[in-house]
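stage 2 :: seqdesign
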């Protein structure tokens, strides 16, 4: 058989060129779709408005109740517009509940607990997520298992321990039992398992970096978004914690939730005064979120994009 009798595919270059053109066109369409902004419909705005109103209403009602007197709050229907007594009720609540000292104590307690929880939980989360050692899964199960134990079960032995240490009625009795939480460890472990590549840790090992160096130079920058979220959640939880501070502290050295109990003493409770105190205790949290909320949200979005 000669070469002249063999069929010649003259359309092969044309087909390959058409495939390349189609591939370019497909990539261009995907890029346009990815960069296209999707506008929300009317239903989405209605649902967002309803969610915002439901979320803001308890704070608005607290302000309304704090701005009236006890008689007006107890009427039916209750008031839905602010009254003229807001600043006078806030001043009374500040003086009667010793809110100045209580806020300083709550700031110390919540700040120390949040910082220690973030640091220890990030260390433990890195160890559980990326380090290989014997008993790792067993220890992780033990940590998770502590989340199922009600904290009320350990109040008596914990109070006896604080008394033996001489910390009863002191702030260290509130701080030290909650320096780290199982929820924080599990949260950071789950985040670092996804956000921190194993290849990055192995590359640092090859370069001669030890575990603490890897944690400081690699883990902390990667974990910053999750650390910001954990700090915010832990701070709010420690600020609002009532049960254990009420057990171990007295009215001479209270946190904000413990100090608010002074406003409910007596046979007739002044609901407007109690609401004024609750509003005072909420204002620092609102101020912190206003100042750091954008950084926290941007950190969450940056972590989501990296993941």
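stage 2 :: out
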């Amino acid at each position: 058989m000669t070469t002249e009798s063999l069929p010649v595919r003259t359309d092969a270059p044309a087909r390959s060129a058409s495939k390349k053109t189609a591939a370019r066109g497909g990539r261009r369409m995907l890029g346009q779709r990815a960069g296209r902004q999707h506008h929300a419909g009317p239903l989405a705005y209605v649902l967002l408005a309803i969610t915002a109103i439901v979320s803001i209403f308890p704070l608005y009602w607290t302000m309304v109740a704090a701005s009236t007197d006890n008689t007006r709050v107890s009427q039916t229907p209750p008031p839905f517009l602010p009254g003229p007594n807001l600043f006078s009720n806030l001043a009374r609540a500040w003086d009667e509940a010793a809110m100045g000292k209580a806020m300083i104590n709550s700031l110390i307690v919540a700040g120390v607990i949040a910082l220690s929880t973030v640091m220890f939980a990030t260390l433990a989360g890195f160890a559980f997520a990326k380090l290989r050692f014997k008993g790792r899964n067993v220890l992780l199960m033990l940590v998770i298992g502590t989340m199922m134990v009600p904290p009320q079960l350990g109040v008596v032995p914990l109070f006896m321990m604080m008394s033996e240490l001489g910390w009863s009625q002191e702030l260290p009795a509130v701080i030290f039992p909650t320096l780290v939480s199982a929820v924080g460890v599990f949260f950071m472990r789950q985040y670092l398992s996804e956000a921190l590549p194993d290849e990055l840790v192995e590359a640092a090992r090859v370069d001669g970096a030890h575990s603490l160096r890897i944690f400081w130079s690699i883990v902390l920058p990667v974990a910053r978004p999750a650390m910001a979220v954990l700090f915010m959640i832990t701070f709010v939880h420690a600020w609002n914690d009532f049960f254990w501070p009420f057990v171990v502290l007295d009215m001479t050295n209270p946190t904000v939730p413990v100090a608010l109990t002074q406003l409910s003493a007596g046979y007739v409770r002044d609901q407007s005064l109690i609401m004024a105190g609750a509003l005072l205790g909420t204002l620092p949290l609102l101020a912190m979120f206003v100042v750091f909320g954008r950084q926290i949200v941007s950190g969450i979005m940056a972590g989501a994009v990296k993941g």
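stage 3 :: structure notes
- The chain has 14 helices and no strands.
- Confidence is low (pLDDT under 50) at residues 1-6.
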